[in-house]
Specification:
- 50% of the residues are buried.
- A hairpin with a 6-residue loop joins strand 10 and strand 11.
- The strands form three sheets. Strands 1, 2, 3, 4, 5, 6, 7, 8, 9, 10, 11 and 12 form a twelve-stranded mixed sheet that branches. A four-stranded parallel sheet has the order 15-18-16-17. The chain has a two-stranded antiparallel ribbon with strand order 13-14.
- The chain contains ten helices and 18 strands.
- The chain is an alpha/beta fold and 317 residues long.
- Helix 1 crosses helix 5 and helix 2 crosses helix 9.
- Helix content is 32%, strand content 21%.
- It binds threonylcarbamoyladenylate (TXA) and magnesium ion.
- The site of threonylcarbamoyladenylate (TXA) has 27 residues, from strand 6, strand 7, strand 11 and helix 8.
């Protein structure tokens, strides 16, 4: 891991590292982000591994400007109204994904929606420009820890789990961005943050509802979000394939005679498996599978999050 003082040269190098699939921590005006090329499923999986996240929460995808955002997501009128005033800035908009959105399924946790943000910090902007692609970035801290607001915090928390830390000094806002669900005409705040509710209400000229999962307790947007659930029935920890079943395989030794087989990782690599998970489920659905046998996935590393996701998918009707 290297800590780089931001300069034209180091930002160019950090942009190249991102394009090469490495993790780069960078300052935004809210908190430091742990960035990866959003179009590279493996790089996105490495974010979850580095954070030690127990679940695949959807990540915020950072882009340089409104045009880049509109290529990835379908901006609604309310979304455009907010973006016109608060981008670049501490606003994250959740909107429907564009049909041909190149962002990896894992970055959006398999959802049909995408969280987009145009950051204002000059180093973040320079990095996005150098990387020339969307950058998925959660806050640059280990799961369960508070968000990092200095390069030293990032280093203390993530250490060798990150390739490059771009040091831009302390982040000016120090609070995460405000997340607004703008998928339809009834925008709703999913997470309070660095952009005040009142400022947005003035622009929209209406009160904004706040998503809550219980009285007095703010909802966790990642949990509220309806994750992608396959139409097919899932049978977990399958040692064999039954008649008519498709197979979601893992590792080198794969049962034969499945209606269709997708191997999450023939070499048994959990990072690769995570990167392939959501697109594999979609592909087996598209192949018309009614039932999917899922081979056992080890429970360590990203395996815990993969199993969490599979168990949810297996439970959903
Ligand atoms: O300030 C910030 O927002 C920082 C900087 C780096 O941009 N990022 C950040 O990311 O805090 P993260 O991953 O820690 O938080 C992302 C939030 C989560 O609450 C997640 O559930 C929500 O955004 N989110 C992302 N995609 C979503 C989606 N499609 N639907 C609903 N919520 C979503
Ligand atoms: Mg966070």
């Amino acid at each position: 891991m290297t800590i780089l003082q931001a300069s034209q040269e180091t930002i160019r190098a950090a942009g190249a590292a991102l394009r090469g699939g490495a993790l780069v921590a960078f300052p935004t005006e809210t908190v430091y982000g742990l960035g990866a090329d959003a179009t590279n499923g493996r790089a996105v999986a490495a974010i979850f591994a580095a954070k030690g996240r127990p679940r695949f929460n959807p990540l915020i995808v950072h882009v340089f400007d409104l045009d880049a955002a509109a290529r990835l997501g379908c901006l609604t009128d309310s979304g455009r109204q907010l973006a016109a005033v608060f981008w670049p800035g501490a606003l994250t908009l959740v909107v429907a994904k564009q049909p041909r959105c190149p962002v990896a399924d894992l970055a959006t946790a398999g959802l049909d929606t995408i969280a987009l943000r145009v950051p204002a910090h000059p180093f973040a902007r320079a990095l996005l420009s150098a990387a020339a692609r969307p950058v998925a970035a959660p806050s640059a801290n280990r799961s369960g820890h508070v968000s990092a607001t200095t390069a030293a915090h990032v280093e203390a928390d993530l250490g060798e789990r990150v390739s490059v830390i771009l040091d831009g000094g302390p982040t000016p806002i120090g609070l995460e961005s405000t997340v607004v669900d703008a998928t339809d005409g009834e925008p709703m705040i999913l997470r309070l943050g660095g952009l005040a509710q009142e400022s947005m209400e003035r622009v929209l000229r209406r009160p904004l509802a706040l998503a809550r999962d219980a009285p007095g307790r703010p909802a966790s947007p990642g949990m509220l979000a309806r994750h992608y659930a396959p139409a097919a029935r899932l049978r977990l920890d399958a040692g064999e394939v039954r008649a008519g079943e498709a197979l979601l395989a893992f590792g080198p030794t794969v049962p034969k005679h499945a209606a269709a087989t997708i191997n999450l990782s023939p070499s048994g690599d959990l990072v690769e498996a995570a990167a392939n998970l959501f697109s594999a489920l979609r592909a087996l659905d598209a192949a018309g599978a009614q039932a999917i046998a899922v081979m056992p996935i080890p429970h360590w590393g990203l395996g815990a999050a993969i199993n969490d996701r599979l168990q949810r998918a297996a439970r959903s009707p």
